[in-house]
């Protein structure tokens, strides 16, 4: 089970694993597949599921959001590619947060396991897809919000790779 995992689990194996027990409750709705789901393939078994999730705790009230568009690091446009846009949002977050004394590797792993929220935020403005990555500010031991008048990030410590 995952104790914590950021949307996208960007490092593939960066979630915090734990042992546990799962109690799953379901309700069968007779004829529900026919009533509520639209087949998307050659048979009635090719459907998109609908499910309800419970509340996720803790709830955070302040977020810092990073945006990415479907243009890669070399400047190449990828037509409405939400994967490239999400990757750019993650890379933008890594670049920004590494200014606060964290190594890029630390931020990369943090984004895999912190309660960040990824979204496809725009898919209609061809040729660009837009993705956003929202990170709760309360998970940090310092204020990571941008400041005006040159009061930007302050290094709290040296990154591990510089020690």
Automatic annotation (TrEMBL):
<dbReference type="GO" id="GO:0016811">
    <property type="term" value="F:hydrolase activity, acting on carbon-nitrogen (but not peptide) bonds, in linear amides"/>
</dbReference>
<dbReference type="InterPro" id="IPR004304">
    <property type="entry name" value="FmdA_AmdA"/>
</dbReference>
<protein>
    <recommendedName>
        <fullName>Formamidase</fullName>
    </recommendedName>
</protein>
<dbReference type="Pfam" id="PF03069">
    <property type="entry name" value="FmdA_AmdA"/>
</dbReference>
């Amino acid at each position: 089970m995952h104790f914590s995992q950021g949307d996208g689990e960007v490092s593939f194996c960066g979630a915090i694993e734990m042992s546990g027990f799962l109690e799953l409750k379901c309700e069968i709705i007779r004829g529900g597949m026919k009533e509520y789901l639209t087949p998307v393939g050659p048979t009635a078994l090719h459907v998109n599921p609908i499910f309800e999730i419970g509340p996720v705790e803790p709830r955070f009230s302040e977020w810092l959001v990073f945006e990415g568009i479907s243009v890669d690091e070399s400047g190449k446009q990828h037509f409405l590619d939400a994967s490239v846009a999400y990757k750019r949002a993650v890379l933008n977050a890594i670049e920004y947060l590494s200014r606060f004394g964290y190594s890029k590797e630390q931020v990369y792993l943090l984004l895999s396991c912190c309660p960040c929220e990824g979204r496809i935020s725009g898919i209609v403005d061809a040729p660009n897809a837009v993705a956003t990555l929202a990170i709760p500010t309360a998970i940090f031991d310092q204020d990571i919000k941008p400041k005006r008048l040159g009061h930007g990030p302050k290094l709290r410590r040296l990154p591990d790779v510089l020690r």
